[in-house]
Amino acid sequence: MIKKTALVQILLSWMLVGSLLSAQKVTQIKFEGLAHLSPTSAKEIAGIRVGEEINAEKINRSIKNFFAQGYFKDVWVDQQGSVLIYHFKEKLAIANVDIKGYGSGDDGMKLLEGIGLKKGDLYDERRVKKAKRTLIAKLESQGYYDTVVDVSTTPVGESSISIVFDVNKGEKIIIQEQNFVGAEALVQNDLELELANKEKDFLGWMPWRNNGEATVDQLEYDAYRVKDVYMRHGYLDAYVSKPLMRVDFGSYKAKVDYQVIEGVQYRVGTIGITQDVKGLNTEDLKDKLILKEGKIFNIKRMRKDISILEEEVGNLGYAFVKVAPQMHKDPEKKIINLNYVVEPGEVVTINDVIISGNDTTKDRVIRRYIYLAPGDTFSARDLKDSKNALGRTGFFEKVDVESQRISADKINLLVKVKETSTGTISAGGGYGSYEGLMFNASISDRNFFGSGINTTLGFEVSKISTNYNLSFVNPKVWDSMYSLGLSLYKKEYEYIDYTQDQLGGSLNIGREFYRYFHASVGMGYVDNQSTINDTNTTLFDNYYFNLYNDQYKKTSFFASISFDNTDDFYVPREGMIAALNFEYGQLDGDDLNATEQIDYPSGYANILKTSAKIGLYYGLEDWIDYDLILRLKGRMTTIAKDDNSYLPIAEKLFLGGIGSVRGYQPYTLSPLDPTTFTRTGGLHRASASVEASIPLSEAAKMRLAFFYDYGMIGEDSFDEITRSSTGVVLEWQSGFGPINLVFSYPIDDDPLDQTAAFEFSMGSKF
């Protein structure tokens, strides 16, 4: 709207011009006071050309055009003979915008920028007032009341201004009590499970407890969430009123009431599928469904069944298949008959793959894990596998792969990723009576400069050990199916009777095949220089020398095959990880003493080490409406060696610690020498773990896992020594990587065992 002063200027200008010679022509146009427009642009906006007759109506229209640009506080025209001089008074530019007291500064600034207040924009008082109202409304939606926002401005030079928003958030509303009046079949904990507004828990200030803070803008949707909970338990006719919140503004405590009429509970009657898609068998489709006849109806499982049918049809190229459930209720029999009507649409092909959200990771790295390319026929399974493959990389916090229809038979794939920190400082440690305080750390990046290359530089120190390692793995050399890995390490560990000192490295190449499989071959080299520690005992000096004074070199050849179809790198909820590894090693040394040569006439051993591991993951949320994850993990290693040959203790197997049997110090479980009670290592080792993981805090990305570990080790057989333990693990996906705090209890420990009630690790998987 043009201000009154501007209108007066327009009127005076019009009267002035009208009083002059109406037939006079324009010989020159000048602009004074312009900053945001060039003279050329100003002439286009004015719409008046040199040589035209001076016309009051045209001048009036040109002034309105300039005001419409939004840059000017005032515009007026002087006429000096045949010369028109436009004068401009521009609005102030915003030199800086600052917001104080609004949580993260970035969040506040994004909010203001969305309104149009950012550095470089023109100052507009109406936008400032709108920004103030928006800030207050946003905070009220988060549960803050009596919020005050003060706005101050400071001139910066003659043409700019600085704006500061000073926010006083007011008080948070705490839901002290929440009632579901009329609810009998379901308890409050079930009804509150997915609500945005929940009653405050006891010790609600703890990260995994609910603090009761109100989210007012979500309150009206909570009624629908309660209704959905009832429909998951078969109550299709349940009525849930809008919540009534009463707030005591003296204490800012609130009480929320819902009125509930539950109705009857329905079970599933008959289930039918109407479809005529070539290549699909109706009975086979029914066998894949989660909902079964006679079971309590669950709306969430019905939605899952719709997704299952859409995927089965989508695997044949039908990207826009629609599955419409027909629900026929029989209140008297308390059953609901279901029939899924499948409308496949047309077979579609991929037009293009469009990637977004990857600020660091290169497009070509992401495309490696997408199994659909331009020109391919759509496949729902390939779409799902692509999303899971991207999740397994560990590069992204969130991955969405959507289809965008561009014609009846063509789509674009929209791959949207949210990157996570791949450069981490990983750490772990514990405390033991022998090792003292143990600490290990590594600097690693799973996605070095967005190239997909995994690099690690790590170390481990304690009172008795010092280890260093450097590794480099390129999983897709030149974007091919081949991988290349290189590692170097230096290890020194002081056991009770000897010190192991190793320097080694390995090189391997591999190839991915059949999507989930990877095979590799390689070779390694180890220079071991173990030395016996000083001891005051003389009785067993020769024994200790024979057992621990190993100086040898080992050349190894490796082969492995692995399988991984899990859906996430750190917290998989479905799939399996499995691997089988072989190592053939040739040992050679010059320091095998005379006694050992008698006992081991074949000298140092040649070995064949076979190891295997498996991890099974199953999320039960689709079945029990709770994010419970079951995990079953197992490991096995066995070593075969030449008869009458000597295998150094550094090449033998030990149990204990994270990765085998928790609750025992790392590498402290093995067969004992009957004379000295010294642990001499084994040739056969196996361990298994059963875990149940539950959510603690989704916001804090914390989970709690209960576990039972069982392990066995022996020289001649697996079960010479068996140990087990139980405990809990606090799992936290922190900004530095995954952190696991392990609290364990050894169940059947021996008096000679070295136990550990607490351990922790960071950055580990499996």
Strand order of the largest sheet: 19-20-21-22-23-24-25-27-28-29-30-31-32-33-34-35
What is the structural class? alpha+beta
Number of helices: 14
Low-confidence runs (pLDDT<50, min 5 residues)? Answer: 16-22, 430-434, 536-540
For the biggest sheet, the summary is: 16 strands, antiparallel, barrel
Overall shape: it is globular
Mean pLDDT: 83
Description:
This protein is of the alpha+beta class and 766 residues long. The protein is 19% helix and 43% strand. A 16-stranded antiparallel barrel has the order 19-20-21-22-23-24-25-27-28-29-30-31-32-33-34-35. Helix 1 (4-19) runs antiparallel to helix 3 and helix 4 (105-115) packs across helix 5. The longest helix has 17 residues, at 125-141. It starts with a helix and ends with a strand.
Keywords:
43% strand; 766 residues; 14 helices; alpha+beta; 4-stranded mixed beta sheet; 35 strands
Which secondary structure elements does this structure contain, and how are they paired or packed?
Blueprint: H1 4-19, E1 28-32, H2 39-46, H3 56-68, E2 72-80, E3 83-90, E4 93-100, H4 105-115, H5 125-141, E5 144-145, E6 148-156, E7 160-168, E8 171-172, E9 174-181, H6 188-191, H7 219-232, E10 239-240, E11 244-248, E12 253-261, E13 267-274, H8 282-288, H9 299-314, E14 322-330, E15 335-343, E16 349-356, H10 363-367, H11 380-392, E17 396-407, E18 410-419, E19 423-432, E20 436-445, E21 454-461, E22 465-474, E23 482-494, E24 498-513, E25 517-529, E26 531-532, H12 541-548, E27 551-564, E28 574-588, H13 594-599, E29 606-619, H14 621-624, E30 629-641, E31 684-697, E32 702-714, E33 721-734, E34 737-746, E35 758-762
Parallel strand pairs: 1-3, 4-7, 9-12, 13-15, 16-18
Antiparallel strand pairs: 2-3, 5-8, 6-7, 10-12, 11-12, 14-15, 17-18, 19-20, 19-35, 20-21, 21-22, 22-23, 23-24, 24-25, 24-26, 25-27, 27-28, 28-29, 29-30, 30-31, 31-32, 32-33, 33-34, 34-35
